[in-house]
Amino acid sequence: MATLGAVKFLLCLLMIWLINFLPLCQGLGKQNLNNGYKYPFIRKASSFSSPPSISTTNTNDGYDYIIVGGGTAGCPLAATLSQNFNVLLLERGGVPFTNPNVSFLDNFHITLADISPTSASQFFLSTDGVFNARARVLGGGSSINAGFYTRASSRFIQKMGWDTKLVNKSYPWVEKQIVHRPTFSHWQRAFRDGLLDAGVSPFNGFTYEHKYGTKVGGTIFDRFGRRHTAAELLSSGNPNKLTVLIYATVQKIVFDTTGKRPKAMGVIFKDENGKQHKAILGNDRESEVIVSSGAIGTPQMLLLSGIGPKAELENLKIPVVLDNRFVGKGMADNPMNTIFVPLKKSVKQSLIETVGITNKGVYIEASCGFGQTNDSIHCHHGLLSAEIGQLSTIPPKQRSAESIKAFVKNKKDIPIEAFKGGFILSKVANPWSTGDLKLINTNVDDNPAVTFNYFSHPYDLHRCVEGIRLATKVVQSQHFTNLTLCEKQTTEQLLNNTVKANINLIPKHVNDTESLEQFCRDTVITIWHYHGGCHVGKVIDSDHKVLGVNRLRVIDGSTFTESPGTNPQATVMMMGRYMGVKILRDRLGKLAGV
Question: Domain spanning 42-49+62-126+132-148+229-331+531-588 has what CATH number?
């Protein structure tokens, strides 16, 4: 994520909790749908006409597929299924095309800083005390991330049980439409050479493939700095069979429970005015509701719809459709820590372009710089730096709204000069530490309680230490000292710079620069690669059909037991295309034409 000055990939998910002030940021929210794009099938949810009722017999005019969530997986999935069937895609957010805060690399941090109800990102705070974000916009995470595009390893593909031939056709389907080669800045060159000096070799050049060593990957930002999201993949859909509703917040899935197994019949959603609507499936037994709401939204939606641990559902007075104790379990987030790199000269803004794929179980990336276009949403930000601690000295149970509000109020006037620099990012691959997701109420607009239990497994902590050691070697290389015009610093100096950098004045433990383990715990952040909650074999079967329920699937990152590759968006988009083609072939055979 990135902060207001060093738009580093890992933004300090700026938390603006100043209740006594006027709103600090205003999202573009309900954009003019006739401006900025040519997608005739996209319209506001309020334009939808509900059927008179959801019944088990009168659904001949229903949809073949209703997809809940127009995100990184949902958009390519909808586009693919619409080639042969009537598809309704429901997205709770707006469109990315006319929002400059989403569309331009220079404004990467702004959407994350905007916590207004119309923002493209929805802030949440895990019970671990780490700030995080969920997408709330068509295109999902591809509309708010740092844009890096790289495929999963062959091991991951085999682990998922996917058809390699179809996978190798599905990735290029995405790449030809929205993926670009990065411009490769001086910062990234120094980072590349520093990785090689530190032993992360060989150099594999520019490639989408997951290979040990150092490589340059793809990006969804073009050479002009404009973002291309999964929403653009909808242009491959059949406009005569595809309907996309924005500001359509699904509240629950509706089931027929009169038979031996519950059967999905449709969904209930509210539009931008708060009015409820019903969308129903057709009578065909192969018609389905497909939940693609992401690793937070999908288990939340199943729970709100009555699928989950019986006791938890009954406690919230949610009618139990299916008792499944695994829904919301096995949540994981790749912990990330950083090394701050001060600069004595200005540097062009650069997000993730290069990665070191190590044999130590960590990935090393880098970002730097700051930018903001004239037409972006300008805010007076209260700052919390995700890179450097996030209230880490306040025990999680004491991180109340009042304590956070007080902290933000004291730190909101940090000068822009404090943000010159960049960051080397160390991410633990495939964390062994896991947690869970639980509802706190029945309001779909509210975040559930999410726990990731960062570093609860010692192997994750061991790998973090290895990653920090490697990151410091990169910064200490001559390539970086030549770039930064700073003298080579000791490890302790680098750690102190990171812990005590002006962009975050949070006091730390006294030994956090003496103990790398303590440093890891104190400075842990997210890189948004959380996953789990609906695992194969526990919540869904190998075809992604929800166990014990008819006409319901889950297709998104909630099904993963690990985050694919160094950055997951490529594989999540591929997954939408892959599963769409697979469903069409299973249902129509050669007549599918894909």
Answer: 3.50.50.60
